[in-house]
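User: Hey, quick favor. My workstation is busy. Could you predict this chain's structure for me?
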Amino acid sequence: MTMKKKIATVLAIGLALLVINTGCGKEIDTSRLSDLGGVFLHDEEDLDFSMEVSGRLSEDPVVSTTFEGVDVEIMQPSVDGEYSNKILRWGISRKPNNQTPDADPGAPQLLRKYGAMYIGDKTKKEIYLTFDEGYENGYTAKILDTLRDNNAKGVFFITGPYLKEHQDLVRRMVEEGHIVGNHTINHPSIPEKSDSEVEEEILGLDRAFHEKFGKHMKYLRPPKGEYSERTLALTHKLGYCNMFWSFAYDDWYKDKVRGAEYAYNIVMRNLHNGAILLLHAVSKDNADALDMIIKGARERGYEIGNVDNIKFE
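Assistant: No problem, here it is.
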């Protein structure tokens, strides 16, 4: 091997190691975890979805969703004992005229430090479709049909009971080229859990998913939008990218049906470059509006992007 080839090989290995160590998709040994018995023990009705996304979300595009942190004691030392466990609740302030919303002060810097994301490239007219799947309400098949018919891909964040009870739908997600993300086994506020409990909530679900589909998860959506520096550091160390969002609305109520036109309009007036859209799959409005949303976004010059292509700043 020539010296030039040796140098190229070393650089390639170094680059590969750099990618592995970004905290996104790093290989983790999950065999030692007890799995809490959770993936196959609990049912969807055992999970708490009373506040699926923490905080208030308003139809007014300029209302802030910023919140104060709350200190919570944990049962054992944190990662290396050096990170704050003050609970932070993800929030954004919408802006009119499809401008980029503002995140909570300091939050983007904290996320960037631990390889987390809430928005893509602000210079590109790309948006990203993400769906929270805490439980099934009968609309996911239609959502998958719509994505297929529009040649669009999404990210589906599932819980343990969802994997247990709806493997047919999860299999469709995998086989049709979507990304399946981790929403934990039991949908807890993860800052309230000890380090070992957080590991089991996340990696236990990953192990069960891998056993069924031969793939690992690499994106995490913290339940209720609640996180802390400790949980960002811990989950990054576990190989996960925390994925928040730059748009959401109060769409998680099963009995709050306002029609496809409502869902379409609120999404359209909040589109922005790099938007990571959080849509709850339990919403009939979202399922009925998704075709219009995808077509409407494309008519406005937006592409439906792949989150794997988002470059960290």
